[in-house]
Automatic annotation (TrEMBL):
Top-level taxonomy: Bacteria, Pseudomonadati, Pseudomonadota, Gammaproteobacteria, Alteromonadales
Organism for this UniProt entry: Neiella litorisoli
InterPro entries: NAD(P)-bd_dom, NAD(P)-bd_dom_sf, UDP_G4E
Pathway membership, UniProt: Carbohydrate metabolism; galactose metabolism
Alphabetical list of SUPFAM superfamilies matching this protein: NAD(P)-binding Rossmann-fold domains
EC nos: 5.1.3.2
The protein, known as: UDP-glucose 4-epimerase
Protein's gene: galE
Pfam families assigned: GDP_Man_Dehyd
Length: 338
């Protein structure tokens, strides 16, 4: 069964391609290389011992979508493509709405024209804003988002729900990721942020490998176990498997299927620093700094709905997340090549 994977050369998309092939699916990748490098393709080949079919192009290019859908018998689309940097979205809101919202509408309109009515969308825990309850359930209120990136995810969710109301044949799966981290256990694939990393794990990894001097810990006066922010980190291989589970269990069922993909466990910044020090064998230098504006104290998922419906649950803990990230970062300190 062929699956179109938009953004399939990116961080989560590339790991999902590996697991798709392992599960017997054939991914067809569409990526415009905005935030990825062509070098990913040869790393995928080393892991898989086979080529992954890919198109370098944009989800907003309707003609390209039409030709891909004409050429391949695509049964479902996993839609990762989009922009994801919160700070940048505040500076460039129009680019975020154009790519994330309009881009999804163009994709879905072309899917409709081609008679493909199954989409799995990369949503985010960001749609819960500062959550009204913890652990966060799928029924927890959404919409009180705090930045254009978060709003773009919320808007797409609402557009897709309305599409299902208008045409109930659609299978719409909204996967709300918590904090994806980690790398393929081979050390051949991983996260390769361009510029200064915004997120905790890639920043720690770059300190560990000597690319940055020290980590700034954004606040130690939160009402949490040690005063630092607490998040639900999920291994990217578990996240990838969540997409396979969604394909297997709900992608051929009409409806709107919403799942949190998290572990259900919260880890603090200092706990993550300690775990990474264990993984890399030396201390990670850090300094306590001011809080980052817009950050929440803590959040973690209630992942029980995904367990019940998708028969999926996260397998890996912080030890694997840090060890696998370290293997990737120490093998490829400068990430993928062009
Ligand atoms: P990523 O930037 O590594 O991957 C996204 C890929 O999409 C990149 O390869 C990029 O080149 C491509 N792309 C962007 N715009 C495109 C377009 N218009 N046409 C074609 N390709 C395009 O990001 P990721 O971490 O793998 O995230 C994948 C998805 O998951 C995104 O939608 C993101 O918002 C969502 N998400 C990510 C996180 C996270 O922390 N990584 C958390 C929650 C949700
Ligand atoms: C960020 C995004 C969120 C997105 C999520 C997915 C922001 C404000 N939010 O959330 O929209 O869905 O990523 O991955 O960017 N930290 C440090 N020092 C650092 C970096 C982070 O102390 O250099 C702390 C943060 O304060 C937080 C924790 O580490 O407590 C995790 O931060 P991060 O990895 O950026 O993720 P989120 O804040 O959860």
């Amino acid at each position: 069964m062929k699956v179109l994977v938009t953004g399939g050369l990116g961080y989560i998309g590339s790991h999902t391609c590996v697991q798709l092939i392992a599960a017997g699916y054939t991914p067809v990748v569409l990526d415009n290389l905005h935030n990825s490098k062509l070098g990913v393709v040869s790393h995928l080949k080393k892991i898989l011992d086979q080529d992954v079919q890919y198109y370098v192009g944009d989800i907003r290019d309707r003609q390209l979508l039409q030709s891909i859908f004409a050429e391949h018998d695509i049964k479902a689309v996993i839609h990762f493509a989009g922009l994801k940097a919160v700070g940048e979205s505040v500076e460039k809101p129009l680019e975020y709405y154009e790519n994330n919202v309009y881009g999804t509408l163009a994709l879905v309109q072309e899917m409709k024209a081609a008679g493909i009515k199954s989409i799995i969308f990369s949503s985010s825990a960001t749609v819960y804003g500062d959550p009204e309850e913890i652990p966060i359930r799928e029924t927890t209120a959404t919409g009180a988002t705090t930045n254009p990136y978060g709003r773009s995810k919320y808007m797409v969710e609402e557009c897709l729900k309305d599409l299902h109301i208008a045409d109930p044949d659609w299978s719409i799966t909204l996967l709300r990721y918590f904090n994806p981290v980690g790398s393929h256990p081979s050390g051949l694939l991983g996260e390769d942020p361009q510029g200064i990393p915004n997120n905790l794990m890639p920043f720690i990894a770059q300190v560990a490998v000597g690319r940055r001097e020290q980590l700034a810990v954004f606040g130690n006066d939160y009402p949490t176990k040690d005063g630092t922010g607490v998040r639900d980190y999920i291994h990217v291989m578990d996240l990838a498997d969540g997409h396979i589970a969604a394909l297997q269990h709900v992608s051929d069922k009409a409806g709107v299927h919403i799942y949190n993909l998290g572990t259900g466990t919260g880890t603090s910044v200092l706990e993550m620093v300690a775990a990474f020090s264990d993984a890399c064998g030396h201390p990670i230098k850090y300094q306590i700094c001011e809080r980052r504006p817009g950050d929440i104290a803590e959040c973690w998922a209630d992942p029980s709905k995904a367990k019940a419906d998708l028969k999926w649950q996260a397998q890996y803990g912080i030890a694997e997340m840090t060890a696998d990230t370290w293997r990737w970062q120490s093998n490829y300190p400068n990430g993928f090549s062009d």
